[in-house]
Amino acid sequence: MSTTTETAIGIRPFEVEISDEKIEELRSRIEATRWPTKELVDDWSQGVRLSLLQGLARYWTNTYDFGRIEARLNALPQFTSEIDGLEIHFIHARSVHEGALPLIITHGWPGSVLEMTEVIGPLTDPTSHGGTAEDAFHVVIPSIPGYGFSQAPTEAGWDSARIAGAWAELMTRLGYTHYVAQGGDQGAGVTDAMGRLAPDGLAGVHFNFLDAVPKELLMAALNIRLAFSHDDRDQLSKVLATIMRGYIAEMGEHPQTIGYSLMDSPIGLAAWMLDHDADSYEKISRAFLDGEATGGLTRDTVLDNITLYWLTGTGASTSRLYWETGRAGTASIKNPPPHVKLPVAYTVFPDELFQAPRHWVKNAYHNLIYYNEAEKGGHFAAWEQPEIFAAELRAAFKTLRNGSGS
Amino acid sequence: MSAEAPTATEIRPFQVDVPGEALDDLRRRLAAVRRPTKELVDDRSQGVQLATIEALVAYWTSEYDFGRVEERLNALPQFKTEIDGVEIHFIHVKSAHENALPLIVTHGWPGSVIEQLDIIGPLTDPTSHGGSAEDAFDVVVPSLPGYGFSAEPGDLGWDLGRCARAWAELMRSLGYTRYVAQGGDVGAGVTDAMGRLGPEGLVGIHTNLLVPALNNPAALPASTEQERAALAAIKTFQTSGNGYFVEQSTRPQTIGYALLDSPVALAAWIADHDTDAYYKIASAFVDDKPSGNLTRDHLLDNITLYWLTGTGASAARSYWEAYGPDAPGAKQQPPPDVRIPVAFTTFPGEIWRTPRSWVEASYPDVSYFNEVDKGGHFAAWEEPELFSQELRAAFRSLRDGRSA
Questions:
Q1: Residue A286's domain is classified under what CATH number?
Q2: What residues of chain B lie within 8 A of the CB of A49, using their CB?
Q3: Is A185 a catalytic residue?
Q4: Nearest to B46 among A47, A152, A254 (CB)
Q5: Contact A259/B49, CB-based, under 8 Å?
Q6: What is the mean pLDDT of residues A363-392?
Q7: Structural domain tally of chain A?
Q8: Which structural domains are found in chain B, ordered by start?
Q9: pLDDT tens for residues B309-330?
Q10: pLDDT in tens, A367-379
Q11: With contact defined as beta carbons under 8 Å apart, do B181 and B167 qualify?
């Protein structure tokens, strides 16, 4: 673990550059895919369906513009900086409004900074997106080590806590002395760890996924004296179903093994990434097979994310985060991390894997200052519903603004 | 589901014929492998190590003889017959000795009939392998549906019980009226199911993996040190190395894409079975120090067979059928107890070392139990002579000279 207080290390501008050669290689691999036979069921109960992947492969090779990633990312101010031995890639978009609140947002798996790009406008420029100048944020969106254009760790130990430490250093390095943090999925784990670390300057956190559930509530679930309501039981079984997943078991136990698939077969990678949760699968399936996108989850943006994983060759290194999370989770049973004392805000999205009731969130985070159920959106809330997501962050952090953000 | 006994169609001879372009395509893919960075640990705890895969790919590309699968299989009498709607491939070697005992041996995952090739000689021709004529077997080694040269099921419901019914029909159609069955891994599941089905003619079974222990380890005795060690070994497997099991029994199609499209993905997935087998495989490729018969060539014969037959997804689906919560079989009543004699051999490198007490708690009529001093999960493959000796000893009391 690192307790570095590195200083005076440079922040360098960064631009994505992808060679035509790499794109040609990807295209030829997709075209040469050796397909399995069709699944034997009429739903997704055996995994990602052949018709969806064949539809995706067709769009990927025939219609998709491989220059999109470069264009989308290079339209934003990107930087890299070496923190704790790793070159970290991040987007840093400052608001023109004075007193904007600095905010660091962490993506998850199978996501990337591409999940978050459409919340940047509403957050940094609220007056153009139905908000007021008082709603403005300066936005920092880093790539988790081993993801996208951040360097992959070359040693074990890069768990959520170590990433949280790196993020605190990044915010300090950017000169922010009063800021907030946000995350869902693995980003919720990192943001939770930031809350427990409580670095100088961090004023509060917002989640759209309850990372704290598996540990604390599941322990409570084993306590037969606690009476659970019908709704609690329903949600708990959804939580359990979330954990008992092949991709979590495999990436948590043997990330290197699945890494060979994710590096060598673009269709193998696409299948693995689409097999996340039933709701996002349905939405992505409709986008490819019926041309009906749900919000920001369009064919193009789904392929941007998969193409980014392929071109950066990060299938194995992204999987290793689950191995780290698993190790850290086991260790925390013996040595629990400190409680989160900072203010916590929470938004429930109706199509998320489970809908954490307020009292679960309150149980995990005693200083709950905001809890709301959004009207739509699923696991990839920022990606699917950027306007709603941005509105939630404005409301969630309203009371934590004090005008001292740099 | 077909609860009624299926009927086999005509039995036809079969020869493997691998087209040259399939081999060229495999070579092209191997030459273009895109590797991940090295794992961050010095052991198997993050999965199949890069050094193992690099040595495997180097050997596969530069030294392995791609004609081996065809040659090894075509040296044996192979047949096909359609049972219950699926074309079944099998090896059938009759002993020259009279009164040989007919035996059906079922492979597992990530195996194939390749696992069993080197027990065929000792079993059918014992006098050339340190045994006597009274030890002889007629051997039937089928490929499970969706594996190797058997066809893939086109409908749901091919669980262990349905495979067991198909094997009973296969033995009947071969004219065997008195026979025994053997299996490890998934093959143990099929053999256990045959025991529960109790078809006419089946007089006993032998397994080298205790199926009831995997289904419900908590129901087994846990008072002795040996029993507690076996329980702990099952728990270790279930918490640190069964990602493949969860994935295949719930999402076989998802992992199937990589297994069909990338030979290196397939090799890694197959090499990642259990700790003991993994280190033996790593030692074969990295240090050229095979454990017994688990040589580089034999390991690649099996992986190459999966690749050339394109059965990564269909083999994975057999887990979905056998162990998945969404399979039709998951809603069925548990099958009855095994009423025929059961023989068991504990191999020391197996995922857990089955104590005699567990076998006795699992089966009412245990006719044979032995613990041998070497061999692991792929016992028949790794130690074919020892494995054959076990089968001779295990089934000795079930011979009566009346076999077909």
A1: 3.40.50.1820
A2: 253
A3: yes
A4: A254
A5: no
A6: 97
A7: 1
A8: 20-398 (3.40.50.1820)
A9: 999 999 999 999 999 888 888 8
A10: 999 999 999 999 9
A11: yes
